[in-house]
Amino acid sequence: MLGQSIRNLEADSLARVALANNAEELEAARIAAFGRKEGAFQQIAKEMSKLAPDERKHIGMLLNAAKQAVETALECRKQRFAQAALAARLDAEWLDLTLPAPGPRRGHLHPLTQIQRELEELFLSLGFAVLDGPEVETEYHNFDALNIPADHPARDAQDTFWLKDGFLLRTHTSPVQVRGMEKLGPPLRMVAPGRVFRNESVDASHEHTFYQLEGMMIDRDVSVAHLIYFMKTLSTSIFGRDVPVRLRPGYFPFVEPGFELDIQCLICGGAGCAVCKQSGWVELLGCGLVNPNVLRLSGIDPEEWSGFAFGLGLTRLVMMRYGIDDIRLLQGGDLRFLEQF
Ligand code: PHE
What we know:
Radius of gyration: 45 Å
Strand order of the largest sheet: 1-4-5-9-8-7-6
CATH class of the largest domain: Alpha Beta
Order of helices and strands: HHHHHEEHHEHEEHEEEHEHH
CATH topology of the largest domain: BirA Bifunctional Protein, domain 2
Largest sheet: 7 strands, mixed
Structural class: alpha+beta
Number of domains: 2
Number of helices: 12
Bound molecules: phenylalanine
């Protein structure tokens, strides 16, 4: 009787194990067979206590053999499921480590830097040195040495960020002229690109921070003709063609005579637009012959030497070249804008 039950239980359990489709069904089969309270083998073990000792021994062996067989089958099947689960996971999480990585995204030079480097190259080819100067300047280099004494109204024309102890943020690159004369003396050919600062409220055409390129040439008998020659070379090189320019009288204390050089507005072609304030012309640079006072202040004899100087708005130039009508875009840090250049 009990022997038959054991054989039936073994057959049923093995079938259930074989038919289990997944780990959960397998676990259910294990509990049905070996569960501590309800397990079928446990029930049979209880029955055994009623048997006579010699019969109990025989049935006990039978029971152990059956348990063994079911346990082995369970273990086998369990491993199969574990292997299948691992294989499925490897399949799902597969990575091809031999594929080339996308790599870091490449950046490029800011349009201002591009134009600055083009101009540096042009002037280097014309025999000019490229100089650098501090952005935090002394009052002397930014103003006094450029023939702008403390009570001079021209100081008000450039709204200055004053720092402590008479230092300031340079309002133009012209102080590098002074540093160039002090350091190198005549004859001198130099340009100095750089960042300048003015205490102005910001709008589409005004920034508190912008870029200029300063230039200076000192030699014997330098005249307005030299100035015009270099300015023409400059504008042709920048725009790649002959752009109409005009020279107007302009006042800067450090040059005499002084001029402002305008180019025909490249955005409207001279017809008049918002950028050129309907005039058809845009101011590109200030220039002139170096004021003898400026030479003298830096220890250069104006009887022997003369020169020209110019200060060009690099920011303005970039705007003209690309037709940008809002200066704030340039330093705004928006990559969608910068990626266009
Ligand atoms: N420094 C002047 C400015 O910022 C420009 C300038 C430079 C004019 C050199 C004449 C000579 O406006």
